[in-house]
Specification:
With 425 residues, the chain is α/β, with parallel strands linked by helices. The chain has 19 helices and 14 strands. A seven-stranded parallel β-sheet has the order 3-2-1-4-5-6-7, with helices on both faces. It has a seven-stranded parallel β-sheet with strand order 10-11-9-8-12-13-14, with helices on both faces. The protein is globular and about 65 Å long.
């Protein structure tokens, strides 16, 4: 009964989904592409053993990177199929994996679309990244005999409270998963309380992502463009945060030679952030100009995708966006891994354990608001010794938490070693 009610709601929302795609396409035309896939219509595909990974958007797609590398070594004859929900997630898959994987949009969660998806691609295992609980997808996988793993699983207190509002459906869905590999003991406890049964702590795959060599080379190029001046980064900022940061920075900018680099989280907001900086009187350049940063430039907008490692490695101090306002923070692990001092705001529920441990270790400093952020930035930019200590601590912190890939791979091997019933043709 809970899943029937859910299905009826999904069916009722399908017209809204079409309107939503059209609305999003106003700012991101890629939402107009591959519509058929969202309703379970796929082009012909060759018949190969398939390992299917669902990564809803950018963060999940990047988190899967070390796992994909391990899977390609362990199962070289298998096709890896990625499913996404956002154009930016799909584009990230292209950037990271090229033609080494296939990629489609996962259909909306109706029983018939999910049934057709499974029959068409016939995956021998499904791996859902982080916290994407789709009741009809899970039910159809169970019915078809496709083992389904929730990998790199995380669940904040806030998300757990939302799932509790639909306790019966959540318990039914979590209980139907083959295995759950949780990022931390806290995540495992919250998932178990909601109904997950076969559960183990595997750690966070994001600690296993190595800074790519080409990104480190690009960091050197960035640094050359900056010239000989202090540089700090506001990374993966979300709507509303740039205004707070720019207003706080404007109060002290007249007495600073430092360059502020802002890299918005979403590409459709690049022009908006440029306008915000210009309106406040800053001299602004774009990364896409491919020019050295002029001495009079005070704000550089990183209007590119897939270059966060390069930005982190190129700057003196990094603030992690999504943490000043209630967005739950973006990933601070990449910044720690390249040895840049990290500043992070009060909203960290998406990375609560990593943020807490990084601050405890001394790799990151917490700030309460934009004014305190600017105060800490100014202190760090003139204190090379503190920056070096925090950077070294960050590298050690990231190194100590590696190993999730091998633990997740072992879980996949265990699952694939079990007998699987073939999908009906």
């Amino acid at each position: 009964m809970p899943r029937l009610i859910y299905t009826l709601v999904i069916i009722a929302l399908l017209p809204w989904a079409i309107v939503h795609l059209l609305w999003r396409a106003r700012r991101q035309p890629e939402y107009l592409h591959h519509w058929g896939e969202r309703f379970g219509l796929f082009v012909a595909t060759q018949s190969l053993p398939t390992i299917w990974i669902h990564a809803v958007s950018v963060g999940e797609t990047r988190a899967a990177q070390p796992l994909v590398t391990a899977l390609r070594v362990k199962y070289p004859n298998d096709r890896i199929l990625f499913t996404h929900m956002t154009p930016t997630g799909r584009a990230t898959s292209v950037d990271l994996y090229g033609d080494a994987v296939e990629r489609i949009y996962l259909p909306y969660d109706t029983p018939w679309a999910m049934r057709h998806f499974l029959r068409h691609f016939q995956p021998r295992i499904g791996i859902i990244m982080e916290t994407e609980l789709w009741p009809n997808l899970v039910a159809q996988c169970r019915s078809a005999g496709v083992p389904l793993l929730l990998a790199n699983a995380r669940l904040s207190d806030r998300s757990a409270a939302r799932y509790t509002q639909f306790a019966a459906l959540t318990r039914l869905t979590l209980g139907a998963l083959t295995y759950v590999g949780a990022q931390s003991a806290g995540d495992a406890e919250r998932l178990r309380a909601l109904g997950a049964t076969t559960l183990t702590v595997t750690g966070n795959l994001k600690f296993d992502i190595d800074p790519p060599a080409d990104q480190l080379t690009l960091a050197d190029a960035f640094r050359t463009r900056f010239g000989h001046r202090p540089v700090w980064l506001a990374a993966s900022t979300r709507e509303g945060e740039e205004t707070l940061i720019l207003d706080a920075w404007r109060k002290v900018d007249g007495g600073s030679t430092a360059l502020l680099v802002i890299v918005p989280r979403h590409p459709q907001r690049f022009d908006t952030v440029v306008r915000l900086a210009v309106e406040r009187g800053f001299s602004v350049q774009r990364r896409s100009d491919e020019k050295p940063v002029a001495t009079e430039t005070t704000v550089l907008i990183g209007d590119s995708m897939g270059e966060m490692f390069a930005w982190y490695a190129a700057v003196d101090v990094a603030f992690i966006g999504g943490s000043l306002l209630e967005y739950g923070s973006q990933n601070l692990i990449e910044a720690c891994a390249v040895g840049v001092p990290v500043l992070i705001g009060p909203s960290t529920y998406n990375f609560s354990e990593a943020a807490r441990e990084a601050k405890r270790a001394g790799a990151a400093l917490g700030v309460r608001d934009a004014d305190e952020l600017i105060e800490q930035v100014r202190k760090l930019l003139v204190n090379a010794s503190q920056r070096q200590n925090m950077g070294a601590t960050g590298r050690a912190f990231a190194q100590q938490h590696r190993g999730a890939t091998q633990r997740t791979l072992a879980l996949i091997e265990t699952t694939l070693s079990e007998n699987q019933s073939p999908l009906p043709s």
